[in-house]
Amino acid sequence: MTVRSLPPAAQLCGAYEVRSLQLGDGRSLAYAAMGPPLAQAKLVCLYHHGVPASLVEAEPLAAAGAGLGVAVVAFDRPGMGGSTVDPAMSVASVVADAAALLDHLQLAAAVQVGESGGAPYAAAFAALRPERTAQLLLLAGLAATHGRQHRPLRRSLSSMDRWCMSLRALGASHVINSLVKLAANRTPNMVKRGAGGTLGPCDAAFLRGNDAAKDWLLRFTQRAYMNGMRGVLRDYRVLAGDWGVDVGAVQARTAIWHGSGDRIVPPLHAEYYADAIPGSQLRLVEGEGHVSLVGLHGGEILGDVLRWAEARGQPSAEVVEVAAEPVAQPVLRAIEVCA
């Protein structure tokens, strides 16, 4: 296998500020605008991160977008990072939070981007708020796993995610997340050395000798648990249950990208979205994993989104095998501030 990774001394393409928006119910929503100023951007993406993760996860995609004039706005879901816990959090409530953020930023619409466990929220936003969805972009996206009809999707997940998303094993989920939080905060060097060992060979190859990517993985995980585990545990419960949204109602142009070697969220999940969303385009990237997909193809992915936006063309429903030469993307750094 050819080792393809970010260079150890990757140049940073910029910094960003993490700000806080007070929502109508008094909760705080932490967010960051990455890349070019929103008013000058050719396109703005609203990024929904995975789990356990935080807005820091958006950095590689934002780094790829900076050179294209694409801005990325990312936010921490309730209870993760700098956002307040929402005991009543649901897929629909996260959509409402995201819409409030667009209001605050005076954005009429944005490309909804969902990576991994963020895909259900991005798809739900597109289904529930079509007038504010410029396009829908799903990256290594987690599909529905509740009920007998979705049992194959649930069984295909990594063992850690199966336990964390099991509504019958909440105690096990608590133990697993306790260990992840403890390791990320108490033994970061050990975590970085072992990064990739549980992700599969494609991601292991991407992370080997790639200190920038290992540091990014550690930082977005540490931020996820910075205020405890309640937010992460609630997120898993929401994702494991009935989302209460028909993703088949999505009207926006939808691009689905997935690595053929993804061992965390296998390509079967991408096929779920391709079958459910009319006119969607599924692109399977040969030889890429869960984190290497965006790490090495972020520019290609956003370039496709930008070209479609500029041309206002129609999406294709065919499956496209992508084997383009990947381009390493630098990683951004964050500066915490108060709005």
From TrEMBL:
Listed SUPFAM superfamilies: alpha/beta-Hydrolases (SSF53474)
InterPro entries: AB_hydrolase, AB_hydrolase_1, AB_hydrolase_fold
Domain AB hydrolase-1: 46-292
Gene3D superfamilies, A to Z: alpha/beta hydrolase
Any Pfam family hit: Abhydrolase_1
PANTHER family, per the entry: AB HYDROLASE-1 DOMAIN-CONTAINING PROTEIN, HYDROLASE, ALPHA/BETA FOLD FAMILY PROTEIN
Protein name: AB hydrolase-1 domain-containing protein
Organism lineage: Eukaryota, Viridiplantae, Chlorophyta, core chlorophytes, Trebouxiophyceae
